[in-house]
Sequence to fold (287 residues):
Amino acid sequence: MDITKLAGALVAAGAAAGVSAAPVTVSQTLNLGQLLNGGGTGLHFDLGSTLSGQNLESQQVLSGSLQVYGVSDASYGSGVTQYGSYMLESQTNFTAFYQYGGGGYFVCTSYSWWSGGCSGGYYVPAYYYPVQGTNRTFLRSDNVLYSDNTVDTMSVHAGNTTQTGSDSSVSNSATAYGPQVFAGQSGNGMYGTDTYYDQSRNVYHSVSGALSVDMTLDSLALASFATAGTLDASVFAQTGQFRLDQAVLTLQVDDTPSGRLPEPATLALTATAALGLAAARRRRRQE
Fold:
């Protein structure tokens, strides 16, 4: 090959070597299914064998990220009853007649001395007077409130970085009202009676839902992985409780094996030497 063409090829190769190839992505997923309630747990990732299987080394890792996913379910305590007010449901009006002054009585108008008693008179019947009365029914609707107002927070630590994620979905629901239950009665019957009933339902309020943390690995975490081919992280329930579902470690790795291509600086020096040799040959020919 002509020395000038060789030099050009070396320069081109040096330029190509100076452009980084797209890194390889490797990842590991941990399926956990662990409940965290005020405590924590450790995460251990080991990608050494995965890298070896692709002829890669842990020292070639360029960058990485850690994603952790969890779900916060509602945790209800005992219900608290919130009483409503009794509302009139129905009423019935009636007229009743009540006896005045006891029973009837007999008025004697002719007394018989012979027989020693009345021989004539008349009977006065009992007096009844009308009374207006009302029978009423009242109903009170009560709520038994179950609530979980704690914002559950997941804290993830790797290297020198700590990142948190919280749930934010507010949920409200209620059951149908149950049957009416007799609660008491008042009144004397003459003017009517008031009868009271209660009915209740369960009402649920919670802050729950998915939690997630997407963390970029810092230099300490990357250095730790480069040394051992493993990464250790930790997850804590900073507040509340949640179910830890999954953790994913994703790494970007330089797939250029050492020695496959010369360094760009080496190629440049070689090309410069070749160009100098070509110039010397041209001078000798001209002489």
Summary: The chain has a mean pLDDT of 83. Residues 75 and 181 are 29 Å apart (CA to CA). Residues 264-286 form the longest helix (23 residues). The helical segments are 3-17, 48-53, 219-228, 264-286.
